[in-house]
Amino acid sequence: MIRVILPVHLRTLARLDGPVELEVAGPVTQRTILDALEARYPMLRGTIRDQATQRRRPLVRFFACAQDLSLESPDAPLPEAVGLGTEPFMVVGAIAGG
């Protein structure tokens, strides 16, 4: 099971109380995790990545194993600990301001 931690506003939208546990078919990548997440929670489509381009939204970041994976290819394999479920895949809403 893959564990995904979402920011509060996305948990509220999906009516979740905590982390999400997902089964991911095939290699564990950003794309396969987000595909599984959006399939299970269709109300999240378009909130994390653009529906047309599949690109990450500008103020959304991805982290796993203390690494910022936001600029990695969405098809790059994630750290093994994420696939084993020992480390979560985190979706973080960036804060902008001045």
Short description:
The chain has 98 residues and is an alpha+beta fold. The protein has helices at residues 8-14, 30-40, 80-84, and strands at residues 2-5, 20-22, 60-64, 67-68, 89-93.
What does this structure look like?
The structure is a single chain. This protein has 98 residues and is α+β, with helices and mostly antiparallel strands. The protein has a single domain, classed as Ubiquitin-like (UB roll). The protein contains three helices and five strands, in the order E-H-E-H-E-E-H-E. Strands 2-1-5-3-4 form a five-stranded mixed beta sheet.
Number of domains: 1
Number of strands: 5
Evaluate the radius of gyration.
Answer: 13 Å
Strand content: 15-25%
Q: How would you describe this structure in keywords?
A:
single chain; 98 residues; Ubiquitin-like (UB roll); 3 helices
